[in-house]
Design brief:
heterodimer; A: 393 residues; alpha/beta; D-Maltodextrin-Binding Protein, domain 2; seven-stranded mixed β-sheet; 18 helices; B: 286 residues; mainly alpha; MetI-like fold
Chain lengths: 393, 286
């Protein structure tokens, strides 16, 4: 069972040799925590909004294939030559709330926010759609939209994918130190095994941590009720006060694993990918038997984009939903590729990655991945508050 | 007249940049924060949408909900200040009186940590105090620490991190005060048959008090509002008020509570500092 979900040592060593965005991130040392005090990016709004031949895309850092030698994005360059559209790329996303805060006033006043394509995470994408800050796609411009994976086809915030398409998917599940957990961790009981007491770290991302606990409790997270949610939060709070859970963290749980402070985590596939490839099999990752969560960052066109910006944005999105292009991006970013057919294309460019469960989860794995249902504004506040309180905030 | 009038204006012109800066970056944000702190959610509105309703009850609720974190902030900040003083006083004393030609090098070393980011230094401490760092296995093999005891994710690590991070703020004012002491006063004390300890107690310490006051303020105030040490070195059981404000602001998007907590923290610090300065005196601050 375990081997189906985990990478083979061979694959791991091959992957370990690759230079990817994750190695770049880890090399920077600060990991996610550095973002804590990082200054917000600028630039996006400085470009002209009136030019009919441009498209301006705001995305997260290190989230698109990048050639360090030429300092260019190879797939984006190809898009420019193919279409003649001047695609401007801004790594302006540091935090969903921060980015939203930066552009919210302009969205409200219907003034150009400086981007024709934005990339918020699912729950934030839901908020944009709810507030009417997006435009519906002209699907005639995006014939490749049908390539989206079945599991991502109809999220509750955009059931027909009329105004959002996944950029990359992020799986969460159990990560562990293989020396301390030689049999691996596949259930919540195995996570809370005696050898991990006081050395368990879970994610600050509410939907991932509570989602995994909920599924272990037999709850369908696409229909979770407030009582069920609060019950799971109480479970977490109890595990914190009883000294089982050491911390509730963002990306920096990776440091806890390497420093030995944590031996088992609820974590993200991508981080575990780099940890296991850099530490020669010391760490491993699996989707819980009861189910893991998958979330995604979404390509969307803000309500303030001009007609030409929207059309060019749609062409850009269509381009990145071409399986060959998607494979090229996935080979660099190592996140779950949302595009059908990219796996076959990957075999041509990097066959060792075509079998990676991290990038192309098998049907069996994918069937265990679920998306947390979208919350109403009231729920977002009260549930978020309960989750924050449980972690001492 | 034509010569004296501009002369009158000059001081105001010189003050203008400072006032303009303070007005834009201090007064305006404070006013904005005060307005936010009494808002309530718009009925049926989306996350982060609030309207003014002069709900002063926000303050009471915010305080009552987070008493533990407030208490923890002041306890940790006080401890960090005491430890920093205990470490910095001998250090500053040695640099001021005993370092000879190494004085400048030692001063540079005190400031050297500032060449790296605050955040990276704190993350480094996490590795140093971590399970597989140098310290913990050593202490364990010497049986000075139990096999199950850990340092990170405890109050000890948080206070240690704050002490370390704010040490230069304590050392530099102390050094400035000590360095300014006229050596002749110490000699005079000896001439009056005071021994080393008495001289230190009756001459050096009183003359260095301005440095002590400045140093403790420069350490305590940022330490009480700090959230980086608690979030990197601590656990859910060591969260400080800064962590609550951060989570209210960025995670729950509850701006009014975050603003009310910020104001309460500012007021609490202001009261404590006022009492402290009244007692210690400000005549020769810095």
């Amino acid at each position: 069972m375990a081997s189906e979900r985990s990478l083979s040592p061979e694959a791991r060593s091959i992957l370990g040799a690759r230079i990817s965005r994750r190695s770049v991130l880890a090399g920077a040392g600060g990991l996610g925590a550095a973002g804590l005090l990082a200054a917000c990016g600028g630039g996006g709004s400085s470009s002209s909004g009136g030019d009919t031949n441009t498209v301006r895309w705001g995305n997260w850092p290190l989230y698109l294939d990048f050639d360090a030698k030429t300092k260019k994005y190879p797939t984006l360059e190809k898009f420019k030559t193919l279409t003649g559209i001047d695609a401007q790329y801004f790594e302006d996303y540091n935090d969903n709330d921060e980015f939203f805060g930066k552009v919210q006033a302009q969205l409200k006043l219907k003034q150009d926010i400086g981007y024709d394509v934005v990339t918020p995470t699912d729950w934030m994408a839901a908020r944009w759609i709810r507030l009417g800050y997006t435009q519906k796609f002209d699907l005639a411009n995006i014939p490749n939209a049908g390539n989206i994976l079945d599991s991502l086809k109809s999220p509750s915030y955009d059931p027909n994918r009329e105004s959002s398409l996944t950029w990359q998917g992020i799986m969460s599940g159990f990560g562990w130190n293989t020396q301390k957990n030689p049999k691996g961790i596949h259930t919540l009981d195995e996570l809370f095994a005696p050898q991990n007491k006081g050395k368990i770290v879970v994610l600050t991302e509410m939907r991932d941590t509570i989602g995994i606990i909920l599924m272990a409790q037999g709850v369908d997270i696409t229909k979770v009720t407030e009582a069920q949610f609060m019950n799971a939060v109480d479970f977490m709070a109890k595990k914190i006060s009883d000294g089982w859970i050491r911390g509730v963290k963002g990306n920096d749980y990776a440091q806890d694993l390497t420093s030995g402070d944590a031996t088992a985590v609820i974590g993200w596939s991508g981080d575990m990918f780099i940890l296991s490839s850099e530490n020669a099999g010391k760490f491993d990752f699996a989707i819980p038997e009861s189910g893991g969560t998958i979330s995604g960052d979404n390509l969307m066109i803000p309500s303030t984009a001009s007609a030409s910006g929207k059309a060019n944005g749609e062409k850009l999105i269509n381009y990145y939903y071409d399986p060959a292009v998607a494979a090229e991006v996935a080979a660099y970013v190592n996140y779950v590729c949302p595009v059908k057919g990219a796996q076959a294309e990957m075999e041509k460019i990097a066959p060792e990655l075509a079998t990676s469960e991290y990038i192309f989860p098998s049907d069996k794995t994918a069937s265990r991945l679920h998306v947390f249902r979208s919350l109403t504004p009231d729920e977002e506040t009260t549930w978020g508050e309960a989750f924050q309180k449980a972690q001492g905030n | 007249m034509s010569i004296t009038l501009p002369k009158v204006r000059v001081p105001y012109l010189l003050l203008f940049p400072g006032f303009a800066f303070l007005f834009t970056f201090f007064i305006l944000p404070i006013v904005n924060l005060a307005q936010t702190s009494t808002q309530t959610p718009i009925p049926g509105g989306d996350t982060g949408q609030y309207e003014q309703s002069f709900a002063f009850s926000n303050y009471i609720n915010a305080f009552l909900d987070n008493r533990d974190q407030f208490a923890r902030s002041f306890v940790y900040a006080t401890l960090a200040t005491i430890f920093a003083l205990a470490i910095a006083y001998p250090l500053a004393y040695a640099i001021a009186f005993k370092s000879g030609k190494f004085k400048n090098i030692l001063l540079v070393l005190v400031v050297a940590p500032f060449f790296t980011s605050f955040l990276l230094r704190t993350i480094a401490w996490k590795q140093i105090l971590g399970e597989e760092g140098f310290l913990v296995p050593t202490l364990r093999s010497l049986h000075l620490m139990g096999q199950q005891t850990t340092i990170t994710s405890t109050a000890v690590a948080v206070v240690a991190g704050m002490t370390y991070n704010f040490l230069p703020f304590m050392t530099l004012p102390l050094y400035a005060s000590l360095e300014r002491i006229d050596p002749r006063t110490i000699e005079a004390s000896g001439d009056l048959y005071a021994n080393g300890i008495t001289t230190f107690r009756r001459v050096t310490v009183p003359l260095s008090l301005p440095g002590v006051v400045a140093g403790t303020l420069l350490t305590f105030i940022p330490a009480a509002g700090d959230y980086v040490n608690a979030s990197i070195l601590g656990s859910p059981n060591t969260k400080m008020i800064g962590n609550v404000i951060e989570s209210r602001y960025f995670k729950i998007v509850d701006y009014p509570t975050a603003a009310a907590l910020s104001f309460t923290l500012m007021a609490a610090i202001l009261i404590l500092v006022t009492l402290y300065i009244r007692k210690a005196g400000t005549e020769e601050l810095v």
